[in-house]
Amino acid sequence: MNWDRIEGNWKQFKGKVLEKWGDLTNDDLDVINGKREQLIGKLQERYGLARDRAEREVDEWSAGLKEW
């Protein structure tokens, strides 16, 4: 899915993000505000992921949102 669309509809996607990455908080989601780079950074911080792994997870997650 296009990140412009995710960013524009972030409130709708927050629940999907929490389903996938439950260690993120609502405050984290407010800071991320639909921005891909912010999400990648928070995943690195919370889960101790390398940048390339966090990017891969975000890309796989967003690809699975096609039904939206």
Description:
The structure is a single chain. This protein has 68 residues and is an all-alpha fold. The protein contains 5 helices and no strands. Helix 3 packs antiparallel against helix 4 (36-47) and helix 4 (36-47) crosses helix 5. The model has no long low-confidence stretch (mean pLDDT 93).
In short:
The chain has 68 residues and is mainly α. The chain is built from five helices and no strands. Helix content is 72%, strand content 0%.
Main sheet: strands, sense, barrel: none
What is the radius of gyration? 11 Å
| Fraction of residues in H or I helices | over 70%
CATH topology: Protein Yjbj, Chain: A
CATH architecture identity: Orthogonal Bundle
SS field, number of helical segments: 5
CATH hierarchy, class: Mainly Alpha
User: How many domain units?
Assistant: 1
Q: Which residues form runs of ≥5 with pLDDT under 50?
A: none
> Which secondary-structure class do the elements indicate?
mainly alpha
Straight-line N-to-C gap: 8 Å
* Overall 3D form: globular
Could you state the order of secondary-structure elements as H and E? Answer: HHHHH
CATH homologous superfamily title: YjbJ
Q: Could you tell me the number of beta strands?
A: 0
Beta-strand proportion: under 5%
**Mean of residue pLDDT?**
93
Protein name: CsbD-like protein
Pfam families: CsbD
Family: Belongs to the UPF0337 (CsbD) family.
Organism: Calidithermus terrae
